[in-house]
Amino acid sequence: MVVCGDNALAQRLTRELAVVYEQRVIVVLPSLRGGDHGPQIAALVGDPATSVTAVEARVPDDAALRAAGVAEAAALALTSGDDQLNVHIALRARRLNPRLRLVIRMFNRTLGDYLENLLDRAVEVAHPELDPSAVDASTTVLSDSDTAAPSLVAAAVVGSDKIVHADGMLLRAKERALGAVSRPGGRGDREPLCTLALLPEGGRRRGARARQYAAEDAAEEDVDGVGPVLLPDEAELQGLAPGRGAVVLEAITPRDRPNPATGRLPRLPAVRDLGTLFSPRLRFSLGTMALLVTVLAGLNWRFGQGGPLHAAYLTLLDFLAINEPNVKEPDPQQVLQLLASFAGLMMLPLLLAVVLESYGAFRRATSLRSPPRGLSGHVVLLGLGKVGTRVLDRLLELDIPVVCIERDPEARGIALARSRRVPTLIADVTEDGGVLEEARIKRARALLALTSDDGTNLEAVLYARQVKPELRVAMRLFDDEFALTVYRTLRDTYPLAQTRSRSVSALAAPAFAGAMMGRQVLGAIPVGRRVLVFAAVDVRGNPLLEGRTVAEAFRRDAWRVLALDVMERSREGTPRPAHAPGTAPAGASDDGASHAVGVGELTWRLHPGYVLRPDDRVVVAATRQGLATLLAGAPPEAHAAAAAEPPGLPRQPRP
User: Which of 4, 123, 391, 520 is the right S-S partner for 536, CB 3.0 to 4.6 Å?
Assistant: First the structure.
């Protein structure tokens, strides 16, 4: 495995590949003695327990890639934050080794999709002799900010869930009591797919509010040395207290959008929307002027000759000063003409005011808004870089009000905040202590500190704690030991408040490592400081899956089969209905409705007795160690351990 870069993601990815997957890793970086994380990577190179070497090159050109063994490597990860540099290296590497598996970090998702198609097609055109089934020369474009954004949002928003988007499906992990999980009669699209983790007891906490946070604190840190149990056995959940906390996986089907063919007319814009263009005083002046013209037209109709339309026409001519003088008309007609002329004179400054206010309104629309005075229940987002931009996009998708704080007026997320009319403050929280008060931190529901500087994030969180001790906060910290120390200190100082510390590179590294191992990693959901990875795994040739039932393929604290990829078999030419035989829930008939998610490519709630076939492709939830065992093809010692374990259910004949 070859990793290019000297940033936080490169360091964690190298450790992930070398320690978890036990792979030989070669890192290409400018220097082991300097740079962003050169010394940290040097520590991995000098560790005798890992197989990590390094190639120092200022620019990863062809010579550096050849020195790193790209021509014979299985996979290459490009972790630079520069999209253009990653594209350049990817094109060079694909030319040197058409069999190479590429994993590219890119922020621009549109460019990433084009690059995936381009590099994959280049292999097919230039090397038609390669067998696609035997050579996994795929290109995977991932974004660390996209991978970490759902977890960061979930860590800060009260009542929100840990969400992962994958292949058109929406999965969320939600903390519930065991009594609520087993409660019958729930909604079909909200019934738990499985139990991801069993949370430890809340310790010696007392009180209703303390019990509310006990499960979350237990997931964040071990309680009395006992951490959460990941992927527990269903039999293990029987007999436990109904109030015991658990993390369950739920699939949310997208709501049907309204059909435009139903004939419903679009709702007209409300009159109150004019307030964004004209001030109340100007609207009152315009209304008064219209009422005056209407009264003059009525009087003209009363004292003149002709119908109401003719009287209104003459009044408008007098109002605009384009009518002939009423010299030969009666006195009332002459007085009305003079009044209409005076009203027309007053209309000129009123029209000028309309033009000026409209121009000012359009200018304000293109500028950044200030936080409204009555704003409450919002999230204060500190930092609008790559990660902050993705988090802001997620918060807006959830219709959560946001107030942003950014020091750099040219940051990536400023354009998004301006286009979505998000209140944004251009200020430095470390220099101006009143910035958080201006962001209405006292009435906020949470604070997300997501700058790239750990000191800035910590300073903002400590200041916010003084202003509002019960505020829920989530900060971005790289160092795990430092993050755990900060968490413990803030938890002990503010026991009823919720504090979360997350590392973007730690959340993204499992997805990058899984993609380098040659399998499609759909996403990752953190449970405390551990991570559960969701991946699509081929059954063929894997003794831990092939020929086993779904129950037999389960391993506690390692992996669990969640769904069957129905469309994968259709692509291979094997017709398969949306509801595969034997995949109905236990106790249901074989022709019952399937619980497909998204666009129907996945079938959930597989029957425990369903036998996994060689041409199946399954979606699994696994720990990093468990996924490493599956992707490594199950080493001999794992085979022996798996064969020694008793099966969960007896094998059933194939339907």
Answer: 520
